[in-house]
């Protein structure tokens, strides 16, 4: 390759749009049921490059409109427990009486490949993951008020009345945990909240320790070249 072509290749790599780093970062998102994080997360995933999403496993029943393998992997309690025994979950928890878990393999594969990966877990899951992955970034999505949360959950119409009551009562204690998270996003307006969530991920990517890979490549271009003989 000519030195000009070499320089071009280097500079293209140096401004690689994917903000490549050696290892991806785990983005942990939690909110009470009905906090609107599903829509918010879908919006951010559509807009951000190099951001994966880990589809969780659950033993709860599929809601109308949900797709197996896209929203969740819907499995029986037996399958879930067998996976748990084989150590296939990074974390798992009993939430509102059902089991939910994050598959270890997908998360590890994405992180090792330098891709950031977003997981959506309850507050127990977030706590377990923070213990395991110290540089995980955690974000809590708060609905603007309890009334809005009630209205969203009721309008969704997907829950059995008993389950709705359980979810609303659990939400009162779940929101107390926002203090354990690095960031809080109030989901009052989808556009604004999605913008803020994306801004957090962008800012985390710009951290100096995350830029070592690119910075070293840029700095290499500052090295004096050997005089040709
Ligand atoms: P839903 O049934 O409304 O989809 O989710 C109920 C709760 O389970 C939400 O708080 C959601 O964040 C949480 N959840 C979803 N997937 C996981 C997971 O893989 N692990 C844990 N710990 N919680 C999860």
Supply the key terms.
229 residues, alpha/beta, five-stranded parallel beta sheet, globular, disordered N terminus, 9 helices, Rossmann fold, binds guanosine-5'-monophosphate
Topology:
Layout: H1 3-14, E1 26-30, H2 37-47, E2 51-53, E3 57-58, E4 73-74, H3 77-85, E5 89-95, E6 98-103, H4 104-112, E7 116-120, H5 123-132, E8 137-142, H6 146-156, H7 161-174, E9 183-186, H8 190-205, H9 212-220
Parallel strand pairs: 1-7, 1-8, 2-7, 3-4, 8-9
Antiparallel strand pairs: 3-6, 5-6
Helical content (DSSP H or I, runs of 4+): 40-55%
Question: Which consecutive residue ranges, at least 5 long each, have pLDDT under 50?
Answer: 1-19
For the record, what is the CATH homologous superfamily label?
P-loop containing nucleotide triphosphate hydrolases
User: How many H/I helical runs?
Assistant: 9
**How many independent structural domains?**
1
What is the number of beta strands?
9
Give the terminus-to-terminus CA distance: 18 Å
The ligands bound in this entry are: guanosine-5'-monophosphate
**Tertiary shape:** globular
Q: How are the strands of the largest sheet arranged?
A: 2-7-1-8-9
What does this 3D model show about the protein?
The longest helix has 16 residues, at 190-205. It is globular, with a radius of gyration of 21 Å. The chain has nine helices and nine strands. The chain has 229 residues and is an alpha/beta fold. Helices cover 44% and strands 17% of the residues. Mean pLDDT is 88; it is low at 1-19. Helix 1 (3-14) runs antiparallel to helix 9 and helix 2 (37-47) packs across helix 8 (190-205). Bound molecules: guanosine-5'-monophosphate (5GP).
């Amino acid at each position: 390759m000519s030195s000009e072509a070499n320089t071009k290749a280097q500079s293209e790599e140096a401004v690689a749009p994917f903000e490549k780093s050696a290892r991806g970062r785990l983005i942990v998102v939690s909110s009470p049921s009905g906090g609107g994080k599903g829509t918010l997360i879908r919006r951010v995933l559509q807009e951000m490059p190099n951001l994966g999403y880990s589809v969780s496993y659950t033993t709860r029943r599929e809601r109308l409109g949900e797709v197996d393998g896209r929203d969740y992997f819907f499995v029986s309690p037996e399958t879930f427990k067998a996976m748990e025994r084989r150590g296939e979950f990074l974390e798992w928890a009993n939430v509102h009486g059902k089991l939910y878990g994050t598959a270890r393999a997908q998360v590890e594969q994405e992180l090792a490949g330098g891709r950031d990966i977003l997981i959506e877990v309850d507050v127990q899951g977030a706590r377990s993951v923070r213990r395991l992955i110290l540089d995980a970034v955690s974000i809590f999505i708060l609905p603007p008020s309890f009334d809005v949360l009630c209205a969203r959950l009721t309008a969704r119409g997907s829950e059995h009345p008993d389950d709705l009551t359980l979810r609303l009562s659990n939400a009162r204690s779940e929101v107390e945990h926002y203090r354990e998270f690095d960031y809080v996003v109030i989901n009052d307006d989808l556009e604004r909240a999605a913008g803020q969530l994306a801004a957090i991920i962008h800012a985390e990517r710009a951290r100096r320790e995350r830029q070592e890979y690119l910075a070293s490549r840029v700095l290499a271009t500052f090295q004096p070249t050997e005089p040709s003989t």
